[in-house]
Amino acid sequence: MTLTYSPSAKLGDFCPSFKLSSVDGQHLGPEDWRSSKNLVVMFICAHCPYVQAIEDRLIQLAASYSPEDVQFVGICSNDSTDYPEDSLENLFQRWKEKKYSFPYLVDKTQEVAKNFGTVCTPDIFVYDQERKLVYRGRLDDSWKNPSQVDRQELREALDQLLSNQKIKGEQIPSMGCSIKWK
């Protein structure tokens, strides 16, 4: 496992276009969520201990917003040949078991990850109603221990966005496992 940090964000960039298969057999992309005020794109996977440590918190956070206000979507871009935990079948089982309230997509070609410039899991992008990037950062200030969270940075950013405020504060990069490139 190589600890990797997400690069600095270029706020204001538009959400890259994509259409990917979900673990439950749909074909989805940003156009499918245009009625949602905001879009959260999370590069996650099943095998990464950094994702595993925050997974339940991400699921709870997503469930706390209506899809009309904030649409969450997870994307796994890892090479499942070398990382079978990230195979379509295993991702589907985890999605069902954990009761994800959001679509979980598979980026088999890894082109979507490249277009977003993502390098690690988790990597979180927030887009406003115009689908411009307004936040790229971590979930909160304690990836490893939920009881030590002082700042829920993603929630704060989403609440500010929903209150028509500019997102305040430093956007601290996510850290996690590197994307497992082919």
What does this 3D model show about the protein?
The chain is of the alpha+beta class and 182 residues long. The protein has a single domain, classed as Glutaredoxin. It has helices spanning 49-63, 88-98, 111-116, 153-162; strands at residues 3-5, 20-22, 27-28, 38-43, 70-76, 104-106, 120-121, 123-127, 133-137, 175-178. It has a 7-stranded mixed sheet with strand order 3-2-6-5-4-8-9, covered by helices on one side. Strand 8 (123-127) and strand 9 form a beta hairpin. The radius of gyration is 15 Å and the shape is globular.
Instruction: Specify the CATH class.
Output: Alpha Beta
Q: Unreliable segments (pLDDT under 50, ≥5 consecutive)? A: none
Query: Which H/E pattern describes the elements?
Result: EEEEHEHEHEEEHE
* Helical percentage: 10-25%
Shape: globular
The major beta sheet can be summarized as: 7 strands, mixed
> Could you tell me the strand content as a percent range?
15-25%
Q: Can you tag this structure with a few keywords?
A:
4 helices; 3-stranded antiparallel β-sheet; 182 residues; 10 strands; Glutaredoxin; single chain; alpha+beta
